Protein: Clp R domain-containing protein
Organism: Streptomyces coelicolor
Amino acid sequence: MFERFTKDARAVVQGAVGHAEEARAETVEPEHLLLALLDREGSRASFALAALGVGEHRDAVRRELGDARRRAGLSQSETEALAGLGIDVTEIVARVEEAHGVGAMSADDRKRGRRWSGHRSFSRGAKEVLEKALRVAVARRDRHIGDEHLLLALALRPGVPAEVLADHGVTHASLSRVLDEGAGKSCA
């Protein structure tokens, strides 16, 4: 499948591995793919994000991804659902961090004591994003998988990245519209 990835899409995958290594995570997660997309400049995905106003909010998006990681990967909607059951995730995180340090509930931070060497595999969620990117490219009748397909796939897949993007007005529909308009302008 990777032979169908454009240079930009491959750079995103490599960037995601870098973000996973930096976080000392055992696996590359969908959040790492989004972080790598936020790093890109001059690509179709970066154009779409800028057109939708995320360019000036990249730090906020990164912060929200970090907040979710501190909540052990729970999305804001999952946190709110638990609150409806009387479970205050913010209070739980505060107590755990008070006893064990900041980031103690984060999967990457739980393993800080371990040394990690070798290849990082992709989590099931990250693999789903890559597979969905292929399906998106095929549905759009594109020959290659670009970073824009990875972004569209993240917006389609339920989870923290899609929720954070949606909080900033980035949905599959808005991305499709911006990308289609951009393609129409470049063809004119």
Observations:
- The chain has a mean pLDDT of 85.
